[in-house]
Specification:
The protein has 873 residues and is of the alpha+beta class.
Length: 873
């Protein structure tokens, strides 16, 4: 499709640049949407007599139907089968002399036409491109804007060349490879719907005055102890005279500094370029390793008495390398990120959109999701090639919160026709725009060509080189270099080694523990170098998440079609990821899942909630230890796309599942965890990722029958910044006692090993971090609260919060806090005998005051009531 040249202007490839002389008006009100059969109503004038739904823009057709009550998630609806129209009206006079009036469309899914006052002014066939249209002479005071999103289904049926060299079961229609659109909603196994259709990104009018900034390139790097900011801005003067001078101003934790820029004329434009040096610059760190220091960047252009200020956003100064030694071959040796010269064990999740239906999360919901990532000790998110590029607000928050970003280009599994000139040009424009928006961000760590293309090819027995080719081997890395992106480029995830799916080389997708039903020991045996995705489990949500699937149906859920619709599966297989979880119920807990479902369905759900988190924590404990070759791992995935037992460690509503809490403890910047070394005993690992020293007490204790302490020892530790250490339990105790019960000279002398990091001298606030090992198996025998000696005391605290003190005479295993309307600071935890823990309860919704609820535990029979008067059975 050809754009009208008189209407188009180059779109700045960077993040949105704010010029104080400009007037920006979001066209977000008054939208409505309707659907028609394909090509039945090809122009706005043919739409009379149709029924319309109110619509949000940014938003999608699915979002409009959901808001109108015409469709609900889980219902079958083919949004690609119809044409979708979106329209609104607005008042705006034409541009005045010295003004430029631009209609900016930040993204329309997918094949679209744009009409202004009945005239087609634009056409696009990419969901991922933004457009800026000069409409200064086309406005009429009262204006009608209409967008037609053509039905993608019929377009997919058109035969196209070249033929695919391989096929994938990931998507229902392989012809999606010709269209630049998201696979979300079009991948039956993990994302059956809804497909994104409509103006999913913002629409706005920009009335530009004084100065137009068409391109801004910024690079912040570190030279020794000083920061260097290199900047180039291409500007056009919309009034006379043009700027006589342009200064750059940087302000933040390193103070405020200004420097003049060199001005160079380029036809009708001006390029301002130069450098600014910042001595003793405050560095940007991932939040696990330091403070994510940011600096505000502005340009001040001066022409006579007129000053124009350009807000260019924030920058961070940091260095990044794929390994400790320059020239590391990531495909052979794996990825081991070093930020500011410090090795960073990267851990986190694969990201899914906060609003998978409308693709327009509120600022509050987006911030809450990313703060949840930070609070879990996660320091990296991967935006996968099966999804969508995230907006500027997402990347702003990652910069602010210190969360690294692994960014896939939006390609996955398919044989893309890069030899087609139009497709090549579209991909080039898309990639330049994406790189312009994110390449200067300190949070950007990895650029990845695609998801699973090389693996797809290799697993079909084809030449693995087919999966690399021009697109991922040449074009995308060249564009990344041209954009001066300070990030590691990985051509595909997975890639490297003799076959891209071998985990001991390059970058892996690791599902040994998980889909391939390997024992937990495989996490070490596989020698994973970096897991770009891993540990896909069907994670069971809490009761509210179950109710969201089942509604008022009181039937046992796990066999129900509504429940099964939310369980991920690989297309074309005779199993799903609940079968995977059931396997680990047997191998970790010794439970017959099918029998337990039959006799005690609720117990089955509760053990299922716990077992996946325990498996994940065990794997990350293996990978985080100092002797591990692993540089990081990203769980598939953070948040469920729909209600149910999906891959997410957070459910569709944003509530953490128990798996989240198990991960949070082992991923914390300051953490203790243990590994069973068999005949080598039990090893205690302590990590201090923080940028400050850690002075703490390491205490280990061994218990028999979950109550009787048989041995205890402690050591004063002084760990440096970014330091770690390991200790043998028996060395700490001072004698051999078969800590791992590996020699088995007789019955186990203990059944629980506890390792705690505690403040020097103790302050009564409980341990900094705590871990448990069970050499003789998990303590799953249910006991009454009186037998356990479990108690809970609730007290009012500041700002509407409450403190909950938990204690137990015997070990309480897998304690859950159920207080409606409140989120506990820890959950799915284990209580050491005789050691109190204090949790903080924070209001999460419209909460009852005073709060009330209950405790459960995997070895507690029944529930223990919690209220302000204490607790009773």
């Amino acid at each position: 499709m050809t754009l009208s040249p008189e209407l188009t202007r180059p779109v700045s490839p960077g993040a949105r640049i704010r010029v104080d002389a400009h007037e920006v008006r979001e066209l977000s009100q008054g939208w409505e949407a309707t659907a028609t059969p394909p090509d039945a109503r090809p122009e706005p004038g043919a739409l009379e007599g149709l029924g319309w739904w109110p619509a949000r823009v940014p938003g999608t057709a699915a979002g409009a139907m959901q808001a109108a009550g015409a469709w609900q998630p889980g219902e079958s609806y083919d949004f690609d089968a119809e044409d979708w129209w979106f329209r609104t009206s607005f008042e705006a006079p034409p541009a005045l002399p010295g003004e430029e009036l631009m209609l900016c469309l930040d993204g329309i899914a997918t094949v679209a036409e744009v009409y202004l006052n009945g005239v087609r002014i634009h056409a696009s066939d990419s969901m991922f491109l933004a457009h800026a249209l000069d409409v200064g002479g086309s406005l009429e005071g009262h204006n009608e804007l209409a967008i037609r999103c053509r039905a993608l289904g019929p377009l997919l049926q058109v035969r196209r060349r070249p033929r695919a060299r391989w096929r994938t079961r990931l998507v229902a229609d392989g012809n999606l490879r010709f269209f630049r659109t998201s696979l979300l909603g079009r991948a039956p196994g993990f994302s059956p719907g809804p497909a994104a259709v409509g103006p999913w990104r913002g629409v706005r009018l920009e009335r530009r005055r004084g100065l137009a900034v068409d391109e801004l390139t910024v690079r912040a790097d570190v030279l020794g102890e000083q920061g260097r900011l290199a900047l180039s801005a291409r500007m056009r003067s919309l009034e006379q005279p043009p700027p006589a001078s342009v200064e750059v101003e940087l302000s933040g934790p390193s103070g405020t500094r200004r420097a003049p820029l060199e001005l160079v004329a380029h036809g009708g434009a001006i390029e301002a370029r130069g450098e600014l040096l910042v001595p003793d610059v405050a560095l940007w760190w991932p939040h696990t390793h330091g403070e994510p220091a940011l600096h505000e960047l502005r340009l001040i252009a001066t022409a006579g008495e007129r000053h124009v200020t350009v807000d260019a956003g924030r920058v961070g100064f940091r260095s990044l390398a794929p390994g400790a030694v320059e020239g590391r071959d990531v495909e052979r040796e794996g990825l081991e990120l070093h930020v500011n010269g410090v090795r960073v064990f990267a851990r986190g999740c694969v990201w899914t959109p906060v609003d998978p239906i409308g693709l327009d999360p509120t600022p509050a919901s987006l911030r809450a999701a990313l703060e949840q990532v930070r609070d879990a000790g996660m320091n990296m998110l991967r935006i996968p090639g099966t999804g969508v590029y995230e907006n500027q607000a997402f990347h702003d928050l990652c910069d602010e919160l210190g969360v690294l970003v692994w960014q896939d280009f939006m390609f996955a599994n398919l044989d893309y026709p890069v030899g087609d000139a139009a497709f090549h040009a579209a991909v080039t424009n898309e990639s330049r725009e994406v790189l312009g928006a994110i390449s200067r961000r300190p949070s950007l760590a990895v650029l990845c060509g695609n998801s699973e293309v090389e693996q797809q090819v290799a697993m079909l027995g084809l030449d693995p080189a087919l999966g690399r080719g021009e697109l991922f081997g040449k074009l995308l890395p060249r564009l990344a270099r041209d954009a001066r992106a300070d990030a590691v480029y990985v051509p595909s995830a997975p890639c490297g080694g003799t076959r891209p799916f071998r985990p001991d080389r390059g970058v892996a997708n690791y599902y040994g523990v998980g889909g391939y039903l390997r024992p937990l020991e495989d996490a070490r045996r596989a020698e994973v170098r970096f897991a770009a995705e891993c540990l896909a489990f069907s994670n069971v949500p809490d009761e509210a998440g179950v109710a969201a699937v089942m509604g008022g149906d009181g039937a046992a859920v796990v066999h129900h079609p509504r429940w099964k619709a939310g369980v991920p599966r690989d297309a074309g297989t005779g199993w799903d990821f609940e079968d995977v979880r059931d396997h680990y119920l047997h191998t970790i807990y010794g439970v017959d899942a099918s029998e337990l479902r039959r006799v005690d369905h609720e117990r089955y759900l509760e053990l299922s909630r716990a077992v996946t988190g325990e498996a994940m924590a065990a794997v990350f404990g293996e990978w985080r230890r100092t002797a591990s070759p692993c540089g990081g791992g990203l769980v598939l995935w953070l948040t469920d796309l729909a209600p149910g037992a999906g891959w997410g460690v957070v459910d569709h509503s944003g509530s953490p599942k128990p798996a989240y809490h198990h991960l949070r403890r082992v991923l914390a910047p300051v953490a203790v965890w243990m590994t069973d070394e068999g005949l080598g005993g039990i090893c205690v690992h302590v990590g201090n990722d923080r940028g400050v020293p850690l002075a703490t007490t390491l205490r280990v204790a061994l218990y028999r029958d979950g109550a009787d302490r048989v041995a205890e020892a402690q050591e004063q530790l002084e760990l440096p910044p970014h330091g770690a250490c390991e200790r043998d339990v028996e060395a700490l105790i001072g004698h051999f006692l078969d800590a791992s019960w590996a020699y088995r000279f007789g019955p186990p002398g203990h059944d629980v090993v506890v390792a705690s990091l505690e403040p020097h001298g103790g302050d009564g606030g409980g341990p900094i971090s705590q871990a448990f090992q069970f050499p003789a198996g998990r303590p799953l025998r249910a006991q009454p609260a009186a037998e356990l000696g479990l108690s809970a005391t609730l007290k009012a605290a500041a700002e509407g919060c409450y403190s909950l003190e938990l204690a137990s005479r015997r070990l309480a295993y897998g304690v859950r806090v159920h207080v409606p309307g409140y989120a506990a600071s820890d959950d799915a935890l284990t209580l050491e005998p005789g050691v109190a823990r204090t949790l903080r309860l924070t209001p999460s919704t419209v909460a009852a005051d005073p709060p009330s609820g209950a405790l459960t535990a995997l070895n507690l029979r029944g529930r223990l009531r919690v209220g302000l008067q204490g607790a009773d059975e």
